[in-house]
Amino acid sequence: MLTSHRKQAILAALKRDGQVVAKTLSEVFGVSEDTIRRDLRELAVDGLLQRVHGGALPSSPAAGDFVQRQQISTDAKSAIARKAATLIAPGQVVLFDGGTTCVELARHLPPSLQATVVTHSPSVAVALVDHPGIEVVLIGGRLFKHSIVTVGAAAIEAIGHIRADTYFMGVTGVHPTEGLSTGDLEEAYVKRALVARAAEVVVLASAEKLNAASPYVIAEATAATMLVVEGDTPEAVTDPFAALGIAILRA
Length: 251
Known about the structure:
- Helix content is 37%, strand content 24%.
- It is elongated and about 65 Å long.
- It has helices spanning 3-17, 22-29, 33-45, 66-69, 74-85, 100-107, 122-127, 153-159, 185-196, 235-242; strands at residues 20-21, 50-52, 55-57, 93-96, 115-119, 134-138, 142-144, 149-151, 164-170, 173-175, 179-182, 198-204, 216-219, 226-229, 247-250.
- It has a 7-stranded parallel β-sheet with strand order 6-5-4-9-12-14-15, with helices on both faces.
- The protein folds into 2 domains: 3-59, Winged helix-like DNA-binding domain superfamily/Winged helix DNA-binding domain (Arc Repressor Mutant, subunit A), CATH 1.10.10.10; 66-250, Translation initiation factor eif-2b, domain 2 (Rossmann fold).
- The chain is of the alpha/beta class.
- The longest helix has 15 residues, at 3-17.
- Helix 2 (22-29) crosses helix 3 (33-45) and helix 5 (74-85) crosses helix 6 (100-107).
- Residues 3-58 form the HTH deoR-type domain.
- It comes from Dyella caseinilytica.
- Keywords: DNA-binding, Repressor, Transcription, Transcription regulation.
- This is DeoR/GlpR transcriptional regulator.
């Protein structure tokens, strides 16, 4: 089999099964595991999959920059944001991640809500400028222009002084065994710091993020208290998360 044909077959298996294992692929194609690992490396360089120990997972299309991500699953993000907004009670202190779904969440907060939103996202802060009852605390630091969020030591230092009721997390990958992940190392550190400062962690996960992986791990999947997913997400996809004790909320 030509290398190009083998790669297409690998991608087809990945789409069908949600993951591929190098050892199994080597047996199926009658080639060495080294050959399969080379194929996986090259496919990963092309952004077509994410390598993990022993094989590969789908690469999240949500790893693009902020402008690109605004065009992905817009209706789903709006529905997820609307449902997530119902989780915020009056008087709470909540952490909002950066990302397009969290901006939508800010826009869906009811006008009567009195609460405090702490965020490292200027986009979220601007979305709340005209909200009469929301106190906004903007975390400073170096602006990471790809995602329009602040990162770095200054951001992590400021986060360490906050105790929040809930952290609404945006990710690019959510997987029951490979955990919560994102496409930038500094963002991963900031998200990890935010996880540590909240009593509950709610992950906003549209379909393209589920069972996908990105290069930088934020935390194990069990760091999430709840996943907010699209209403038509199959139970076969959510059951592995529910088995870990993570609540599933459908939009």
